[in-house]
Design a protein that fits this description.
By secondary structure, the chain is an alpha+beta fold. It is built from 20 helices and 9 strands. The strands form 2 sheets. A 5-stranded antiparallel β-sheet has the order 2-1-5-4-3, sandwiched between helices. A 4-stranded antiparallel β-sheet has the order 7-8-6-9, sandwiched between helices. A hairpin with a 2-residue loop joins strand 3 and strand 4. The longest helix is centred in the N-terminal third of the chain and has 23 residues. 27% of the residues are buried. This is Diguanylate cyclase.
């Protein structure tokens, strides 16, 4: 009975038999349209997989119940990144809340989060969309490179390249935002570095830049907590302070002054920093930033005028100490030159004012060398042509320094000319003969003699006889021949005085 109902040649039910493929099909080619549809679906599926492989996103799939699972990604490190994201409970909780919102509203939503990866903070953008079948597609893209670039461009637009604080553009934009607004308790402070041009002219712009950087750090330390600190000019800084009274600013300025004094008195300070400052206070009412800025600028300028000359003298004294620290003003060198030049001057019956200038010149003729790098000053071998150009600039730098000091201003022109030669081959002016001041002609001989008879980085000391012969050989070229003769005559007297 049972065998009666078992059909003969029963065909196995397979995909091929259903759609009409092969000898075992139920009906060959009966389902040709279905076959075509399946092939089209396979083609679409292949395209989808290829598309997913090309997009730079991490893909997750979720549902309204809060279940989230990986869907696919093209990133080589995606599995690790995906794992780190799914392990972060805070991020997953936030994603579930956004998913609930998307399920309820049926509207595409965006979410942003940050997460440390490989010791670097990464920025991620998340886009969440719900499908017609209530599946939630979560696309996560690493935006770190883009955010970093945007931050860099923003820094270029808003920050000063040297000091890394806000620039003038940012400062002015901040004032523009509150222009003609009803504001209470707003203060603008302007601070200016005293003598920066002098530092640039004598020590060079690299030293000047370091002064600016150090100053900005001090100002930022004491005023950043109050408001916006900006570099508004080459040597000028501005601060916009809100919701503070003048008494608070006065205290902060006093603390800044104390900190600068401590810095200036420290033994390792390569330079001194002096600031002039002024501020303007707006108590209440409609604000006019331009008027307030002008008032602060006037107050700062008045503060600067009261101490300008003393600041210059202080800077010169600082440079003198710096020169002494470099061993270019040693007591022995100065004293020996002074003794020998005095004997020559007395033999010539020079007036006392000339003798006084010679004394100052023997001590400060090389003060311009504070602006020359140690790599050149202390080089044990010969200088290159480019290095000689730098070295020869010390006489010009020295003149600038002396012109800023009431004590040295009278000998500034002598400092400029102390490397001129009798035959006109010296520098920087190429003067010759009697056009070279007598003080400089005397200094040329005594300085050369003392330099030759003492150790230098590039050679050991020469004997006295060798040094004298060298001066005699250079008579009429480097040295005034008449002064060379006098030098020979009085030399024994000089030796006896030592």
């Amino acid at each position: 009975m049972n065998e009666y109902y078992i059909p003969k040649n029963k065909k196995e039910i397979t995909r091929e038999s259903i759609i009409g493929l092969g000898e075992n099909s139920f009906k060959k080619n009966y389902y040709s349209e279905l076959q075509t549809k399946l092939l089209d679906l396979e083609r679409v599926n292949s395209r989808s997989r290829a598309l997913i492989a090309t997009i730079p996103d991490i893909l997750l799939i979720g549902d309204e119940n809060g279940h989230i699972a990986p869907f696919g990604s093209s990133l080589n490190c995606a599995s690790n990144v995906t794992l780190e994201i799914m392990r972060n409970q805070t991020i997953m909780d936030d994603l579930k809340q956004v998913i609930q919102s998307v399920v309820a509203s049926k509207v595409l939503s965006a979410y942003y989060f940050t997460m440390p990866l490989n010791e670097q903070l990464h920025y991620f953008e998340v886009r969440i969309q719900i499908s017609e079948f209530d599946e939630v597609l979560i696309m996560i893209r690493d935006m770190t490179e883009r955010v970093t670039l945007e931050n860099r461009l923003r820094d270029l637009a808003e920050k000063d390249a040297l000091t890394r604080i806000a620039n003038r553009h940012f400062f002015e934009a901040a004032l523009e935002e509150i222009d003609h607004q009803e504001i209470k308790n707003l203060i603008i402070i302007l601070l200016d570095i005293d003598g920066l041009k002098f530092v640039n002219d004598t020590l060079g712009h690299l030293a000047g830049d370091q002064v600016i950087i150090t100053t900005s750090q001090f100002i930022n330390q004491y005023f950043q907590r109050f408001g916006i600190v900006s570099r508004v000019g080459g040597d000028e800084f501005g601060v916009i302070v809100r919701n503070q009274l003048p008494e608070t600013i006065e205290m902060a300025l006093e603390n800044l002054k104390i900190a600068l004094n401590d810095f200036n008195e420290s033994s390792d300070a390569a330079f001194k920093i002096s600031l002039s400052y002024g501020y303007a206070y707006h108590a209440s009412g409609c604000l006019h930033p331009d008027f307030l800025f002008q008032e602060a600028d006037n107050n700062m300028y008045q503060n600067k005028l009261l101490k300008e000359s003393s600041i210059r003298n202080s800077l010169v004294k600082t440079l003198m100490k710096a020169l002494a620290a470099k061993d270019y003003i040693t007591e022995g060198h100065t004293n020996r030159m002074h003794a020998l030049s005095t004997i020559i001057g007395q033999h010539l019956h020079l007036h006392q004012n000339i003798m006084d200038r010679i004394q100052l010149l023997t001590k400060f003729h090389d003060i311009g060398k504070v602006g020359i790098p140690d790599s050149i000053l202390k080089k044990p071998s010969g200088l290159t042509p480019d290095e000689w150009k730098v070295m020869r600039s010390h006489s010009i730098i020295g003149e600038r320094i002396a012109n800023e000091s009431s004590d040295l201003k009278e000998i500034s022109h002598l400092i400029l000319k102390h490397h001129e030669r009798w035959d006109g081959s010296g520098y920087p002016l190429g003067l010759s003969g009697d056009k070279i001041p007598i003080e400089c002609r005397i200094l040329a001989i005594v300085d050369s003699f003392d330099a030759m008879t003492n150790d230098r980085p590039y050679r050991p000391a020469l004997s006295i006889d060798t040094a004298i012969n060298e001066i005699i050989n250079c008579s009429g070229t480097q040295y005034d021949p008449n002064l060379v003769e006098i030098f020979i005559k009085v030399f024994d007297k000089y030796i006896q005085s030592q």
